[in-house]
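Second attempt. The first submission of DUF4232 domain-containing protein had a stray character pasted in from the spreadsheet, which I only caught after the job came back as garbage. Lesson logged: always re-copy from the clean sequence file. Corrected sequence (352 aa) follows.
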Amino acid sequence: MTADQRLRAELTDDRYALPGWPDPVGRISTGVRRRKQRRRVNAAAAGLAVLVLAGLGIPSLRGGATPDTTAGSAVPWADVPAPEPSLARRSVRPDARDCAAADLGKAWSESNGPGHTVVLLPTRIDSRCTLRGSAGIVATDIRTGERGPVSTTQSWVDGASTGAAGYDGVSQVPATIDPGEPARLDVVTTADCAGPPADTHRYRDVAVVVQGREIPVPAVLLSTACPVQVGIWRVLPPLLNLPWVTATIVAPQQVRRGETLRYEVTLTGKLANLKPCPTYRQRLGTTGETLRLNCAAFPEKPGKTVRLAMELDVPADAAPGDTRLTWMLVAGDGHVVIADLSTGGVAVEITG
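This time the job returned cleanly.
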Protein backbone atom coordinates (compact mmCIF):
# COMPACT_ATOMS: atom_id res chain seq x y z
CA MET A 1 0.00 0.00 0.00
CA THR A 2 1.37 3.42 -0.95
CA ALA A 3 1.43 6.42 1.39
CA ASP A 4 -1.44 7.96 -0.58
CA GLN A 5 -3.53 4.81 -0.27
CA ARG A 6 -2.74 4.57 3.44
CA LEU A 7 -3.87 8.19 3.97
CA ARG A 8 -7.11 7.59 2.10
CA ALA A 9 -7.79 4.50 4.20
CA GLU A 10 -7.24 6.50 7.40
CA LEU A 11 -9.72 9.17 6.27
CA THR A 12 -12.45 6.63 5.51
CA ASP A 13 -11.89 4.14 8.35
CA ASP A 14 -14.82 4.26 10.76
CA ARG A 15 -12.63 2.93 13.56
CA TYR A 16 -11.14 6.41 13.88
CA ALA A 17 -14.51 8.28 13.66
CA LEU A 18 -14.37 9.42 17.28
CA PRO A 19 -16.81 11.93 18.80
CA GLY A 20 -15.56 15.50 19.08
CA TRP A 21 -13.45 15.43 15.90
CA PRO A 22 -15.74 16.55 13.13
CA ASP A 23 -12.97 17.35 10.63
CA PRO A 24 -10.60 14.96 8.77
CA VAL A 25 -7.47 16.64 10.12
CA GLY A 26 -8.54 15.87 13.66
CA ARG A 27 -9.23 12.25 12.71
CA ILE A 28 -5.72 11.87 11.27
CA SER A 29 -4.15 13.38 14.39
CA THR A 30 -6.02 10.90 16.55
CA GLY A 31 -4.85 8.01 14.38
CA VAL A 32 -1.24 9.17 14.63
CA ARG A 33 -1.45 9.34 18.43
CA ARG A 34 -2.92 5.87 18.58
CA ARG A 35 -0.16 4.42 16.41
CA LYS A 36 2.49 6.07 18.57
CA GLN A 37 0.84 4.60 21.66
CA ARG A 38 0.83 1.12 20.08
CA ARG A 39 4.55 1.46 19.24
CA ARG A 40 5.34 2.36 22.85
CA VAL A 41 3.39 -0.65 24.07
CA ASN A 42 5.19 -2.95 21.60
CA ALA A 43 8.60 -1.60 22.59
CA ALA A 44 7.85 -2.17 26.26
CA ALA A 45 6.73 -5.73 25.49
CA ALA A 46 9.94 -6.41 23.57
CA GLY A 47 12.02 -5.12 26.47
CA LEU A 48 10.11 -7.32 28.88
CA ALA A 49 10.73 -10.34 26.62
CA VAL A 50 14.49 -9.69 26.68
CA LEU A 51 14.44 -9.53 30.48
CA VAL A 52 12.49 -12.77 30.66
CA LEU A 53 14.89 -14.56 28.32
CA ALA A 54 17.85 -13.29 30.32
CA GLY A 55 16.27 -14.59 33.48
CA LEU A 56 15.87 -17.99 31.85
CA GLY A 57 19.58 -18.11 31.08
CA ILE A 58 19.22 -17.90 27.29
CA PRO A 59 22.39 -16.23 25.96
CA SER A 60 22.33 -13.04 23.94
CA LEU A 61 24.12 -12.98 20.56
CA ARG A 62 25.50 -9.57 21.43
CA GLY A 63 27.04 -11.11 24.52
CA GLY A 64 29.32 -13.37 22.46
CA ALA A 65 27.39 -16.65 22.18
CA THR A 66 28.09 -18.87 19.18
CA PRO A 67 25.58 -18.00 16.42
CA ASP A 68 23.15 -20.71 15.38
CA THR A 69 24.31 -21.30 11.81
CA THR A 70 21.46 -23.69 11.15
CA ALA A 71 19.11 -20.76 11.62
CA GLY A 72 20.93 -18.69 9.02
CA SER A 73 23.31 -16.59 11.12
CA ALA A 74 26.95 -16.30 10.09
CA VAL A 75 29.86 -18.20 11.59
CA PRO A 76 31.87 -15.47 13.36
CA TRP A 77 35.27 -14.53 12.00
CA ALA A 78 38.35 -15.59 14.00
CA ASP A 79 41.94 -14.47 13.58
CA VAL A 80 43.58 -17.90 13.19
CA PRO A 81 46.80 -17.58 11.14
CA ALA A 82 47.78 -20.53 8.98
CA PRO A 83 50.83 -21.45 6.90
CA GLU A 84 50.63 -21.14 3.13
CA PRO A 85 48.96 -24.33 1.91
CA SER A 86 50.14 -26.56 -0.91
CA LEU A 87 47.88 -26.09 -3.91
CA ALA A 88 46.86 -28.89 -6.24
CA ARG A 89 47.52 -28.01 -9.88
CA ARG A 90 47.11 -29.61 -13.24
CA SER A 91 49.92 -32.05 -14.08
CA VAL A 92 52.67 -31.22 -16.58
CA ARG A 93 51.50 -31.36 -20.19
CA PRO A 94 53.50 -32.98 -22.95
CA ASP A 95 54.80 -30.66 -25.63
CA ALA A 96 52.52 -29.99 -28.59
CA ARG A 97 53.21 -28.49 -32.00
CA ASP A 98 54.91 -25.09 -31.95
CA CYS A 99 52.59 -22.10 -31.86
CA ALA A 100 52.75 -20.16 -35.14
CA ALA A 101 52.81 -16.37 -35.22
CA ALA A 102 49.32 -16.37 -36.72
CA ASP A 103 48.03 -18.51 -33.81
CA LEU A 104 48.70 -15.82 -31.20
CA GLY A 105 45.97 -13.49 -29.96
CA LYS A 106 45.93 -10.13 -28.19
CA ALA A 107 48.27 -9.62 -25.24
CA TRP A 108 47.59 -7.96 -21.91
CA SER A 109 49.64 -7.56 -18.75
CA GLU A 110 49.54 -7.62 -14.97
CA SER A 111 51.87 -6.21 -12.35
CA ASN A 112 53.84 -8.55 -10.12
CA GLY A 113 55.38 -5.81 -7.99
CA PRO A 114 57.59 -2.76 -8.65
CA GLY A 115 59.39 -3.07 -11.95
CA HIS A 116 57.99 -6.55 -12.67
CA THR A 117 55.44 -6.88 -15.46
CA VAL A 118 53.99 -10.18 -16.61
CA VAL A 119 52.87 -10.27 -20.25
CA LEU A 120 50.01 -12.69 -20.90
CA LEU A 121 49.53 -13.99 -24.42
CA PRO A 122 46.77 -16.48 -25.38
CA THR A 123 46.16 -18.21 -28.68
CA ARG A 124 43.20 -17.65 -30.95
CA ILE A 125 42.99 -21.19 -32.27
CA ASP A 126 40.97 -24.18 -31.06
CA SER A 127 43.87 -26.56 -30.51
CA ARG A 128 46.80 -26.93 -28.11
CA CYS A 129 50.25 -25.60 -29.04
CA THR A 130 53.61 -24.92 -27.38
CA LEU A 131 55.27 -21.50 -27.16
CA ARG A 132 59.02 -21.84 -26.64
CA GLY A 133 61.93 -19.53 -25.93
CA SER A 134 61.74 -15.82 -25.13
CA ALA A 135 60.71 -12.62 -26.91
CA GLY A 136 62.20 -9.34 -27.99
CA ILE A 137 60.79 -5.95 -27.03
CA VAL A 138 60.07 -2.99 -29.29
CA ALA A 139 59.00 0.36 -27.82
CA THR A 140 59.06 4.12 -28.27
CA ASP A 141 61.60 6.12 -26.27
CA ILE A 142 59.53 8.84 -24.59
CA ARG A 143 62.45 11.28 -24.50
CA THR A 144 63.46 11.05 -28.18
CA GLY A 145 60.28 9.77 -29.78
CA GLU A 146 62.27 7.10 -31.59
CA ARG A 147 60.84 3.61 -31.89
CA GLY A 148 62.97 0.52 -32.06
CA PRO A 149 64.30 -2.56 -30.27
CA VAL A 150 64.92 -2.27 -26.51
CA SER A 151 68.14 -3.71 -25.08
CA THR A 152 67.31 -6.91 -23.16
CA THR A 153 69.04 -9.66 -21.24
CA GLN A 154 67.92 -13.24 -20.74
CA SER A 155 66.93 -14.11 -17.18
CA TRP A 156 66.37 -17.84 -17.72
CA VAL A 157 68.82 -20.62 -18.54
CA ASP A 158 67.37 -24.10 -19.13
CA GLY A 159 64.41 -23.26 -16.90
CA ALA A 160 66.61 -22.22 -13.97
CA SER A 161 66.45 -18.71 -12.53
CA THR A 162 69.28 -16.30 -13.17
CA GLY A 163 67.41 -13.12 -12.28
CA ALA A 164 64.31 -11.55 -10.81
CA ALA A 165 62.16 -12.83 -13.66
CA GLY A 166 63.22 -16.44 -13.12
CA TYR A 167 61.45 -19.68 -12.45
CA ASP A 168 58.95 -19.57 -9.59
CA GLY A 169 58.82 -23.27 -8.75
CA VAL A 170 55.24 -23.56 -10.02
CA SER A 171 55.27 -22.53 -13.68
CA GLN A 172 55.92 -25.05 -16.41
CA VAL A 173 58.23 -24.57 -19.40
CA PRO A 174 57.91 -24.59 -22.28
CA ALA A 175 54.46 -23.02 -22.33
CA THR A 176 52.09 -25.66 -23.68
CA ILE A 177 48.73 -23.88 -23.69
CA ASP A 178 45.14 -24.78 -24.46
CA PRO A 179 42.78 -22.47 -26.41
CA GLY A 180 42.34 -19.22 -24.52
CA GLU A 181 44.90 -20.11 -21.87
CA PRO A 182 47.70 -17.49 -21.68
CA ALA A 183 51.41 -18.08 -21.87
CA ARG A 184 53.34 -15.77 -19.52
CA LEU A 185 56.49 -13.74 -20.05
CA ASP A 186 58.27 -11.90 -17.21
CA VAL A 187 59.64 -8.43 -17.97
CA VAL A 188 61.73 -6.81 -15.24
CA THR A 189 63.24 -3.31 -15.20
CA THR A 190 65.89 -2.03 -12.80
CA ALA A 191 68.32 0.84 -12.34
CA ASP A 192 70.85 -1.36 -10.52
CA CYS A 193 73.38 -2.76 -12.96
CA ALA A 194 77.15 -3.04 -13.19
CA GLY A 195 79.30 -0.27 -14.62
CA PRO A 196 79.01 3.52 -14.52
CA PRO A 197 75.58 5.07 -14.00
CA ALA A 198 73.52 5.20 -17.17
CA ASP A 199 70.72 7.48 -18.26
CA THR A 200 67.25 6.27 -17.43
CA HIS A 201 65.18 5.49 -20.50
CA ARG A 202 61.42 5.49 -20.42
CA TYR A 203 59.42 3.61 -23.02
CA ARG A 204 55.80 3.59 -24.17
CA ASP A 205 53.87 1.71 -26.89
CA VAL A 206 55.53 -1.50 -25.75
CA ALA A 207 55.23 -4.63 -27.92
CA VAL A 208 56.69 -8.11 -27.66
CA VAL A 209 58.22 -9.66 -30.75
CA VAL A 210 57.31 -13.33 -31.16
CA GLN A 211 58.41 -15.24 -34.24
CA GLY A 212 58.86 -11.99 -36.14
CA ARG A 213 55.43 -10.59 -35.20
CA GLU A 214 55.01 -7.47 -33.04
CA ILE A 215 52.20 -7.90 -30.53
CA PRO A 216 51.26 -4.71 -28.61
CA VAL A 217 51.03 -4.89 -24.82
CA PRO A 218 48.62 -2.08 -23.82
CA ALA A 219 49.12 0.15 -20.78
CA VAL A 220 52.74 -0.83 -20.15
CA LEU A 221 55.41 1.78 -19.43
CA LEU A 222 59.02 0.73 -18.95
CA SER A 223 61.55 2.84 -17.05
CA THR A 224 65.09 1.56 -16.66
CA ALA A 225 68.75 2.54 -16.77
CA CYS A 226 69.78 -1.06 -17.49
CA PRO A 227 68.91 -3.65 -20.11
CA VAL A 228 65.41 -5.02 -19.61
CA GLN A 229 65.36 -8.54 -18.17
CA VAL A 230 63.10 -10.84 -20.14
CA GLY A 231 62.17 -14.39 -19.14
CA ILE A 232 61.04 -17.28 -21.31
CA TRP A 233 57.48 -18.22 -22.08
CA ARG A 234 55.94 -20.23 -19.27
CA VAL A 235 52.50 -21.45 -18.30
CA LEU A 236 51.02 -21.31 -14.82
CA PRO A 237 49.10 -24.57 -14.50
CA PRO A 238 45.55 -23.96 -13.30
CA LEU A 239 44.46 -24.92 -9.82
CA LEU A 240 42.25 -27.96 -9.33
CA ASN A 241 38.79 -27.03 -8.08
CA LEU A 242 36.82 -28.82 -5.40
CA PRO A 243 33.76 -29.96 -7.38
CA TRP A 244 31.23 -30.28 -4.57
CA VAL A 245 31.43 -26.81 -2.94
CA THR A 246 30.82 -23.31 -4.31
CA ALA A 247 31.44 -19.93 -2.67
CA THR A 248 30.00 -16.45 -3.14
CA ILE A 249 30.94 -13.10 -1.61
CA VAL A 250 28.64 -10.39 -0.26
CA ALA A 251 30.62 -7.23 0.50
CA PRO A 252 30.06 -3.48 0.82
CA GLN A 253 30.77 -1.46 -2.28
CA GLN A 254 33.23 0.81 -0.44
CA VAL A 255 35.71 0.70 2.42
CA ARG A 256 37.90 3.47 3.82
CA ARG A 257 41.65 3.23 4.11
CA GLY A 258 42.75 2.31 7.63
CA GLU A 259 39.44 0.60 8.42
CA THR A 260 38.34 -3.04 8.54
CA LEU A 261 36.45 -4.51 5.63
CA ARG A 262 33.67 -6.72 6.95
CA TYR A 263 31.92 -9.01 4.51
CA GLU A 264 30.44 -12.49 4.21
CA VAL A 265 31.20 -15.62 2.21
CA THR A 266 28.51 -18.23 1.64
CA LEU A 267 29.60 -21.85 1.15
CA THR A 268 27.15 -24.20 -0.55
CA GLY A 269 27.54 -27.94 -1.08
CA LYS A 270 28.70 -31.02 0.85
CA LEU A 271 30.07 -29.04 3.78
CA ALA A 272 30.33 -32.02 6.11
CA ASN A 273 33.20 -33.30 3.92
CA LEU A 274 35.39 -30.24 4.63
CA LYS A 275 37.80 -32.10 6.91
CA PRO A 276 40.38 -31.36 8.16
CA CYS A 277 39.58 -27.71 8.79
CA PRO A 278 40.40 -25.80 5.58
CA THR A 279 42.47 -22.66 5.19
CA TYR A 280 41.51 -19.70 3.06
CA ARG A 281 43.14 -16.76 1.35
CA GLN A 282 41.48 -13.38 1.28
CA ARG A 283 42.83 -10.46 -0.71
CA LEU A 284 41.78 -6.88 -1.44
CA GLY A 285 43.98 -5.54 -4.20
CA THR A 286 47.54 -6.09 -2.99
CA THR A 287 46.53 -6.66 0.64
CA GLY A 288 45.88 -10.21 1.75
CA GLU A 289 46.45 -12.99 4.25
CA THR A 290 46.06 -16.72 4.75
CA LEU A 291 43.96 -17.87 7.71
CA ARG A 292 42.16 -20.96 8.93
CA LEU A 293 38.38 -21.14 9.02
CA ASN A 294 36.68 -20.81 12.38
CA CYS A 295 35.71 -24.49 12.33
CA ALA A 296 35.09 -24.51 16.11
CA ALA A 297 31.98 -22.41 15.45
CA PHE A 298 30.64 -24.61 12.65
CA PRO A 299 27.47 -26.60 13.40
CA GLU A 300 28.10 -30.26 14.17
CA LYS A 301 25.93 -31.27 11.23
CA PRO A 302 26.16 -28.45 8.72
CA GLY A 303 23.48 -28.24 6.11
CA LYS A 304 24.03 -27.40 2.47
CA THR A 305 24.76 -23.72 3.18
CA VAL A 306 26.91 -21.93 5.73
CA ARG A 307 27.57 -18.19 5.93
CA LEU A 308 31.00 -17.07 7.09
CA ALA A 309 31.69 -13.64 8.56
CA MET A 310 34.99 -12.26 7.24
CA GLU A 311 37.26 -9.37 8.21
CA LEU A 312 40.26 -7.83 6.46
CA ASP A 313 42.18 -4.77 7.66
CA VAL A 314 42.77 -2.19 4.93
CA PRO A 315 46.16 -0.44 5.28
CA ALA A 316 46.10 3.29 5.86
CA ASP A 317 48.38 3.75 2.86
CA ALA A 318 46.34 1.55 0.50
CA ALA A 319 45.93 3.04 -2.95
CA PRO A 320 42.44 4.55 -3.28
CA GLY A 321 40.22 3.55 -6.16
CA ASP A 322 38.45 0.53 -7.57
CA THR A 323 39.90 -2.88 -6.76
CA ARG A 324 38.71 -6.44 -6.33
CA LEU A 325 38.06 -8.58 -3.29
CA THR A 326 38.94 -12.24 -3.80
CA TRP A 327 38.51 -15.27 -1.54
CA MET A 328 39.74 -18.83 -1.97
CA LEU A 329 39.24 -21.87 0.26
CA VAL A 330 41.96 -24.55 0.23
CA ALA A 331 40.95 -28.07 1.26
CA GLY A 332 43.28 -30.53 2.93
CA ASP A 333 44.22 -32.16 -0.39
CA GLY A 334 45.10 -28.82 -2.01
CA HIS A 335 41.93 -28.53 -4.09
CA VAL A 336 40.41 -25.05 -4.01
CA VAL A 337 37.08 -23.27 -4.03
CA ILE A 338 37.36 -19.80 -5.58
CA ALA A 339 34.53 -17.46 -4.68
CA ASP A 340 32.79 -15.80 -7.63
CA LEU A 341 35.16 -17.51 -10.02
CA SER A 342 33.43 -16.26 -13.18
CA THR A 343 33.91 -12.61 -12.20
CA GLY A 344 37.27 -12.86 -10.44
CA GLY A 345 35.84 -11.83 -7.07
CA VAL A 346 33.75 -8.72 -6.41
CA ALA A 347 34.44 -5.02 -6.91
CA VAL A 348 35.20 -2.88 -3.85
CA GLU A 349 36.23 0.77 -3.92
CA ILE A 350 38.89 1.94 -1.46
CA THR A 351 38.13 5.52 -0.38
CA GLY A 352 39.70 8.09 1.90
